[in-house]
């Protein structure tokens, strides 16, 4: 226990305490941190960039979380049946998850490029012309990074659901069949309730991941065009490490931290009442 | 330095290390974005770099934090070199509030690259690129080609990048008598009538006449010219190798004149000093700067990179690389400006205010006047913040 506590203390507790302290200071790494009380927090409440980033993050999370979870569940249900090339399809869907997000994002950036992109070209052939390409168009950039986020992580959540599906006792389905329950009723009254542990885990993980989204946006759009895809973590990175306002960056990251904590607790409270043990 | 110019830098450094036994220069070459992320952490660490080469526009940001040492004594002390041979624009580019924090490492004026084959195919004289905005607008009509009629040209007249790029739109403002920030670096002038008029002309060219795609980063613009999908690009000497390797038959010319001036952008990279250096380390650095800016070293650098020499007294017939001479033309250098020299928060002004505002206009999110009036307030706030 002691070694892991030491690791947690050094790599989590200490940085957390440091960033909490920095969020009340003006700090640029060279000059000593200057205590400015609540100024950073007062500033962020009035900062349109923070509200823009918060709203982009919310939109991303609200679309990507349910979409990923529902697709993961549908794929798990489908690939839990016996079918041709099942192993191959499962692997193909899971594969993006184990590839680095940066590499995936580079690949998609090329595919969606306005002038040399394969997908842009194919869509152009069937009459869908994205004149500026997907990533430079303010209306399409966010859907594009969302799609990559869903595509990358749904395989992982699918595997978690598959594990859940396989732990459901077959007798329950047999009994239901004898009682005349159709596929929908079997799903609604057996599968779905008995998957609530997985649903809790998957949803909490997906919410945390989407609120902290960074990699693919950093690579694919850098938060552009004109900040339409800038999320909270992107903003923290920009003000902290590019504009060298580390105190302000720390304040914004504490807002993010509290947001993630509160949302996770709410979800945990909601799902705990529905937890199943058997 | 990560490109084909890297070996030329290494060559001069190797020559320097071999030329004497007291000082050793160990370079650590990395991409720019990585460098700027590392500057502060490495300068504050005990074992950080003693010399940092950075874009001159970044100097105020780091000088204001106290991370850099002044180089005023280098220019005052004539035992190192006669610094009057260095172009004054390059020397002044690293000044912040009257104090210099750099010594020129390299300079690169932007030139108009144009694709001769595409000019011929459009029925234009491949030896006569546009010299004014109006000529550009005339020729652009022939060089922008939408062959399948889907509204998206297959070939563009020019590749103009609007973010993550060497600034391409800002010189248009200068050439109409406007600019981003006043010469004394105290006032935003981006909403002045001359600036607005220039922006209106160019955003109209791009939005309505589709002379360039919208939303290009610098690398996209280079790619477009390199693949023959754009007939012109205004960029620095580092692209000559790439365009030659791609088999593009290109010509080089001074970028076309605006109604008021024909200035081009000059990119200056400058050597800066870690504020923690000892006197001895500072002297050693100065010895190296003198070696770097000597006639022989500059010939090695210019021949290897295609950049012009940093000094104005290198005889043109000594240069083997034709591009060094072209980019080093006196007329070009004398009509070059450094963007936002000595302006605090120049990076923020360009990346977080000017370029996003430009993209908003190009995407039809408002008029040039409204968007750039708002941007001007933000720019002024950044200047005042220091």
Attribute tags:
heterodimer; A: 278 residues; mainly alpha; MetI-like fold; 13 helices; B: 386 residues; D-Maltodextrin-Binding Protein, domain 2; 2 domains; five-stranded mixed β-sheet; three-stranded antiparallel β-sheet; 43% helix
Question: Overview of this structure, please?
Answer:
The complex is a heterodimer of chains A (278) and B (386). Chain A is mainly alpha-helical. Chain A has one domain (47-272): MetI-like fold. Helix content of chain A is 72%, strand content 1%. A two-stranded antiparallel sheet of chain A has the order 1-2. The longest helix of chain A has 32 residues, at 48-79. The two termini of chain A are 30 Å apart. Chain B has two domains: 6-107 and 266-337, D-Maltodextrin-Binding Protein, domain 2 (3-Layer(aba) Sandwich), CATH 3.40.190.10; 111-265 and 343-385, Periplasmic binding protein-like II (D-Maltodextrin-Binding Protein, domain 2, 3-Layer(aba) Sandwich). Chain B is 43% helix and 11% strand. In chain B, the strands form three sheets. In chain B, strands 1, 2, 5, 9 and 10 form a five-stranded mixed beta sheet that branches. In chain B, helix 1 runs antiparallel to helix 13 and helix 16 runs antiparallel to helix 17 (368-385). Chain B is globular. The model of chain B has no long low-confidence stretch (mean pLDDT 91). Chains A and B meet through helix 12 of A and helix 2, helix 10 and helix 16 of B.
